[in-house]
Description:
This protein is α+β, with helices and mostly antiparallel strands. It is built from 8 helices and 10 strands. Helices cover 30% and strands 20% of the residues. The mean pLDDT is 95. One of its GO terms (molecular function) is iron ion binding.
Amino acid sequence: MTLTRGELEIDYDLDQASITHFAADGFVKLRKVLSPATIAAYEPEITGKVIELNTQHLPLEERDTYGKAFLQVMNLWQNSELVLEFVSSPRLARIAAQLLGVRSVRLYHDQALYKESGGGVTPWHADQYYWPFATDRCVTAWIPLQETPLEMGPLAFAAGSQSFDHGRDLPISDDSERILQTALAEQKYPEVVEAFELGDVSYHRGWTFHHAGANETDIPRRVMTVIYVDAEMEIAEPVNRFQEADLATWMPGNQPGDRISSPLNPVLY
């Protein structure tokens, strides 16, 4: 076992204050979850797979708002044993289970989100709009692979918005940015944005509204994400075409009413 793989298997000391913060605000940013050495061991492989598997080749100026926000490549773990080591980390998965208050979590899918130099804003949205889940016991780990100053476009969260129903029917778009910016401000949900030091990781609930600024630096904002769900999660009837596609793509062979159990959704903790 390598030293870096060893860190991915060792428990992180998650304190009660962080669990309480997550419950109240729908997100938490945790310090020094991963060492620089661990990130350095996996970043080149993750970035290499993003370059290899990326299907977005239009110039930035010719893309829509979603396309300008980031390069998005999913389930890298299926294409690399090294990425599989990273995505299946018990350290990261145990944090997800502790924050959700569940005994066990399984993988939904991973996705790399690389915001190119000059890449645009990521509009306000809630991830669970895209996911056909019966409960809210799901969480995304957002793992920057470099220091992420404010001008690079780190995630910004609307604290407490995981309980806000308005706007849950909006996909990522110019409309979601405009409508939610106004609605969240009217409801006085504080917008929280901070720089990420190397090794910091945030976790946010599926219904927590978030967005990100443009990347105004001359280097890409490289981020790996892992989405976890309660191991007992049941699949809801899809309510939009995106949820229909997610069911077919990320939970093959499962149907509404089933507990998630496809080969693409292993238990990680």
